[in-house]
Input
Amino acid sequence: MELIVAVDKNWAIGKDGDQLIYIPEDLKRFKALTMGHPVILGRKTLATFPGGRPLKGRRNLILSRNADFAPEGAEVYPDADSLLAHASEDSFVIGGASVYELLVDACDTAHVTKIDAEYPADTWFPDLDARGWQVVAEEGARGRFLSLCDLQAGELMYRKEILAYEPTCPQEAADKAMMLEYIDRFPDTILLRENKWAHMTASGFIVNADVSKVLFVHHNLYRVWAWTGGHADGESDMLKLALKEAWEETGARSLRPLRPEIASMEILAVWGHEKRGQWVSGHQHLNVSYVLVADEDDTLQYCPEENSGVAWIAVEDMSKLANEWQMDPIYAKLLKRAREWK
Ligand SMILES: NC(=O)c1ccc[n+]([C@@H]2O[C@H](COP(=O)([O-])OP(=O)(O)OC[C@H]3O[C@@H](n4cnc5c(N)ncnc54)[C@H](OP(=O)(O)O)[C@@H]3O)[C@@H](O)[C@H]2O)c1
Output
């Protein structure tokens, strides 16, 4: 499902039961995007339409607890569940505030008209920037103070990717369930280290073209040869994160995903340790991994802050050099994936 909204600089959307301002460019976009699709709205927003009548050329699905409310040409539902049971995937949520708040998490795309001005207001839309949504398309400045952009639920996208992942073993099935539970319990901090119990990380298992070698780095903290990876620190695109970390830790310019999908997932225990003079207590890394591929003739350069070496290692020597018993099954899973996918 998608939503469409016009917001001012403070994510305000209304005042005294009406829009902040009517802008022809915005109305045109609204019509073009929603025409032919069901629209979902609250009873009060319907009242703002000319004559309080439903929009033409679209099924109007209205939320109202008032059993006597039966406007002609509209469908009225007493709660979100019964409405959603009758709404197709191509529906647009069109407001107002209470309906946006109710259904924003059920939407994966938001068409937002950003009005570059501040208005007196009494009704606001959820701040999508703060919720980690990302701009995926922007038409930029239109007219004097309009910017039209589409946002996608970045946070929801990584959760969706994890949800869609098919575990390959009992460890992954158990860890996937626990990761989703953590994400749902800590939706606002799970991408941040400030969540001291657990946070998201992404790793890269880097292979050469024929999967005879892996590109490993020597970790200062754990004093072992290992894959690359790091903390999300707010990044919700896990593949982008894995690629960024791999590039920073190896310098390999040709790095690319073998497939742009999660190759393994695991919850990794982190022992308590000192970092830059501060004690970091033991916690869990909710990790997703990707198989990345790089050319062997790339110039390599390790990141001295974290590593003291980077090298191509024959897969037969991987386990010996890694020297971490708990990583053996994970590397074995990833090697199997790499061989299947190459
Ligand atoms: N800028 C924009 O893009 C935009 C878009 C749309 C609206 N708006 C503005 O938003 C404001 C209206 O927002 P609003 O939050 O006050 O009103 P609203 O969301 O349009 O409608 C609220 C009404 O919807 C019904 N409703 C809401 N949640 C329900 C639920 N869970 N189950 C059953 N019924 C439910 C209730 O109707 P009953 O009282 O009948 O039970 C409730 O009073 C206006 O100022 C409007 O102009 C702005």
